[in-house]
């Protein structure tokens, strides 16, 4: 088990670091009373490998319970429970600026100057900082920089682009564009199997329709350009911190052309090692509505 204690100065980026760890598959708990760490660690061990990556956010928000942290760390060490400490910090100027922008008061100076709270917090965390296995100064970090750093330190070696969750979604324009779409492509310019009596009853999941749609030269050219564009966009989306991408492919009814193209794109992404899933929102919509009329 990889057991990470995330701590550091208020405003230094612990929340974003925790989100990044969650995206990497860590089971994250925020502001757990330090005295409960040993019990929590034992519970994780009893999961028999189901929980193998854990991150606990421990900081001065724990108030009087924070002083129990070192006692809990001694317990973990005595029981040969491996853990590592990630400490985040930033300069006074940056921290003050972040607090002013967020319009939040400092936990140790709720009614006073932010800088006073920062000074007090540095003193309280000095020993914990000295024990840190990894120390990150986020003063000059953008969110994407911190994500990249966390991925390097705590990822499993998988390239970050491969961790982007991609959903390829087919739909029918007459039923509306999916509201959660990031990219929308209109394939109504392709030859339509709907007007071929032998193909109309089938969907883009069936080989006759798939073959008909994909065999046309305009389809081949479009797919090549579509795949090239998506593969260009993925690393740039990841660079900006995006973790989920919805690519919507639409035709008139969402049963034939869009399904065939969505399947082809999904297969390409999956074969290239990306986390791609497929969803055909309206594939049976016309059939279901026709049955209701009957």
Automatic annotation (TrEMBL):
> Which residues of the sequence carry a binding annotation for ATP?
8-15
Residues annotated as domain RapZ-like N-terminal:
1-152
Q: Which InterPro entries match?
A: P-loop_NTPase, RapZ-like, RapZ-like_N, RapZ_C
Q: Which residues bind GTP?
A: 59-62
**The organism sits in which domain of life?**
Bacteria
What organism is recorded for this protein?
Answer: Clostridium polyendosporum
Query: Which intervals hold domain RapZ C-terminal?
Result: 165-283
State a single Gene Ontology molecular function: GTP binding
What is this protein called in UniProt? Nucleotide-binding protein
Q: Which UniProt keywords apply?
A: ATP-binding, GTP-binding, Nucleotide-binding
């Amino acid at each position: 088990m990889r057991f990470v204690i995330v701590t550091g100065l208020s405003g230094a980026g612990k929340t974003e670091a925790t989100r990044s760890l969650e995206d990497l598959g860590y089971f994250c708990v925020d502001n757990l009373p330090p005295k409960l760490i040993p019990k929590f660690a034992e519970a994780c061990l009893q999961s028999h490998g189901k929980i193998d990556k854990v991150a606990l956010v421990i900081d001065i928000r724990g108030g009087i319970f924070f002083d129990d942290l070192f006692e809990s760390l001694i317990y973990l060490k005595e029981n040969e429970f491996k853990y590592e400490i990630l400490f985040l910090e930033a300069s006074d100027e940056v921290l003050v600026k972040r607090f002013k922008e967020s319009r939040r008061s400092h936990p140790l100076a709720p009614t006073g100057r932010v800088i006073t709270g920062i000074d007090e917090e540095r003193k309280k965390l000095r020993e914990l900082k000295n024990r840190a296995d990894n120390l990150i100064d986020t003063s000059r970090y953008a969110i994407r920089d911190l994500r990249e750093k966390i991925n390097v330190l705590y990822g499993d070696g998988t390239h970050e682009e491969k961790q982007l969750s991609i959903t390829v979604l087919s739909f029918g324009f007459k039923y509306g564009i999916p509201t959660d779409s990031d990219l929308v492509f209109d394939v109504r310019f392709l030859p339509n199997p709907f007007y071929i009596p032998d193909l109309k009853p089938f969907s883009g999941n069936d080989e006759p329709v798939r073959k008909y749609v994909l065999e046309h030269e305009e389809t081949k050219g479009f797919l090549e350009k579509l795949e090239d564009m998506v593969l260009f966009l993925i690393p740039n989306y990841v660079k900006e911190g995006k973790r989920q991408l919805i690519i919507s492919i639409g035709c008139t009814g969402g049963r034939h052309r869009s399904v065939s193209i969505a399947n082809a794109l999904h297969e390409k992404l999956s074969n290239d090692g990306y986390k791609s899933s497929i969803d055909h929102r309206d594939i049976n919509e016309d059939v279901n509505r026709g049955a209701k009329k009957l």
